[in-house]
Amino acid sequence: MSSNRKGEALQYHAEGRPGKIQVIPTKPYTTQRDLALAYSPGVAEPCIEIEKDPQHAYDYTTKGNLVAVISNGTAVLGLGDIGAIAGKPVMEGKGLLFKIFADIDVFDIEIDEKDPDKFVQVVKAISPTFGGINLEDIKAPECFDIEEKLKAQLDIPLMHDDQHGTAIISGAALINALELAGKKIEDVKIVVNGAGAAASSCASLYIHLGAKKENIVMVDSKGVISVRRKDLNDRKKPYATALNVDTLEEAVKGCDVFLGLSVANVLTKEMVRSMADNPIVFALANPEPEISYDDAMASRPDIIFATGRSDYPNQVNNVLGFPYIFRGALDVRATGINEEMKVAAALSIAQLTKEPVPDVVALAYDDAKLSYGRNYIIPKPLDPRLLVTVAPAVAKAAIESGVARKTITDWEEYKDELRGRMGIDNRLMRSLTEMAKKKSKRIVFAEANHANMLKAAQIAKNEGLCIPILLGNEERLQKLIDELELDMTGVEIINMRHDREEARRRRYAQALANKRQRDGMTYAEAYEKMYDRNYFGIAMVEAGEADACLTGTYTKYDDAIKPAIEIVGIREGLSHIAGLNIVHNKLGTFFFSDTLINNHPNAQTLKDIALLTHKTVQLFNITPVMAMLSYSNFGERNSGSPAMVRGVVADIHNERPDILIDGEMQVNYALDKKLRHEMFPFSKIDNMDVNTLIFPNLSSANISYKMMLEIGMSETIGPIQMGLKKPIHILNIESSVRDILNMVIIAAVDAIFEEEGKIEK
Q1: Do 497 and 588 fall within a single domain?
Q2: Which of 12, 29, 39, 531 is catalytic?
Q3: Residue 284 lies in domain
Q4: What integer best gives the mean pLDDT of the chain?
Q5: Which of 59, 519, 552, 562 could form a disulfide with 730 if both were Cys (CB 3.0 to 4.6 A apart)?
Q6: Catalytic annotation on 527?
Q7: What are 693-745's pLDDT values in tens digits?
Q8: pTM
Q9: pLDDT of residue 3
Q10: Does residue 405 sit in the same domain as residue 437?
């Protein structure tokens, strides 16, 4: 490691609060009553219940979400036997990964004991504290004995990740690699270079996946593990081959799969060339693989290659597995982690790889072309879908194999709970997504020449979210489609400037001129506008030839909203339109308004925004509980913005007493109902959870939701147009694929509401 990197690493671990994890309270503790419940005398009650039935520990303590990461420091990373305390930074790091990927709390425990039996005694003695145990960095062969003895004596999930994690993740990669190579696992010849804990576990899992034991050759530092050798221990004997091969070079000739769990640079280009067609090479030694990436790629063009490194394609990384495996096991209170659960994890990871890659993943890895293939046989570690894919698969396997003490019946609800653990409540979007799929609407992608628009259209088509219509020059679009490696077969492309669209341009222009002739618009002027993709796309919706239109990825808002107002217009009875953002964070789902349109609203505009927002939130089958925000509370200031907000609230209370709204109030009082009750019990929304925030101006609304996004506190959907007669939605400039897809769903649902007359009602 360079001196710069060393200094950076040491600073990272030392600055602020030393270490990487902490313990924080989960219950109130500010009052004497709180303390009396947390400790004496109130704490006696859960103790009594747990004594009656130890399973109640899952109800009244952290046990069900607490994993111990335990090591004796005998095999730490590539550092070897450095001792228990020296390995503590690694164990803390493992705890960090558990938390950020699966919301599992961790105590790292470093045990200064190398004797396997004594180590087992210590772990068994402390096991009642935990819902699961992750053994880490324990050298072979002791790790085998330790794991086996603990599994026999404990009734909680336990896994030595160095063994089984690598097996599960490489197993998932192998499933996909074999499919791409056109080979069956029961037929392939596999060479495993390395005979430690991970190698044995990988071989065992591959056999459970269908590989034949007689087709596996294992190699250690002394050569092929053969029946002719007399120096084999009990761990190696099961994998002794009767084949007449003694060296790695001999073993790899004609084999289909090479799995390296050994040391750097032991596999040569010549050895790779001697393998069968479409060879699969997993060179997982760290930090340097058994063969370098460059040498592997240069050896032959048909290779499928993976390493343990993040700077090359196909990283076999244990973080793809262990957080989610333990999550699923904990959630059904499994008595252990069995082979069925491991296989389920591997299969679910393999299947996820074949799904379209979310934009958030592609952006994280700066790879816009991530898709299932030779360079993408396994998901990326930052893929947010792993939690809701792997954990349910593991939980199901635990239930079906009889090791679960708790049953899950509603799997969609369980997935929602998992999403909520990560601070994102997607129940609303899931319901809207299902609605969009049931009635596939025609959506115009006005700026289809933008890469993100095209990618979103592709995914929307594949997932049945809508029927995309692309506007643009078909030749240029096809070139971009090819560059992005997309498949737009069957998708309609309309070149609004081509001669063949002359009749449609004239028809749209005449309709616009008729509508706006008293506003000074001539037919000739309207006709020229139809060469513009925004005017043309919105005119399609107005004419009933499309159901919704999306634009704005590179068009300024003012240039996009003008044709929308001119062509479809504002709904009857409204004087203003507004923009709404749905914001998801750890506290739940909130609606922010107005985030897009009205810079400095006066009292009437602010009132219209509030009423329009109330109506829109209701469309999502949610009862709006609204707070009108300001920098003061209930009459503290008698002039300026607070006074205006207070007047708006008074008008709404008088005219619409059915609406749950109050203010003016500061945002902390809006979001903390306990604080609000203590200070302002007279509020109309007393003891209610606020879900809708009306900001006093555009600056405060826009800054608020964007700041939350940038500091990682939330996700957002929007801006959603409110008040137009037809579903026209204008995106933020350079919206991500994920943002556009969310708006596809919103636009589709908006079109459904329009069709059913719900908006007018």
Answers
A1: no
A2: 39
A3: 164-419
A4: 89
A5: 552
A6: no
A7: 999 999 999 898 888 877 766 778 888 889 888 999 988 887 888 889 889 99
A8: 0.66
A9: 47
A10: no
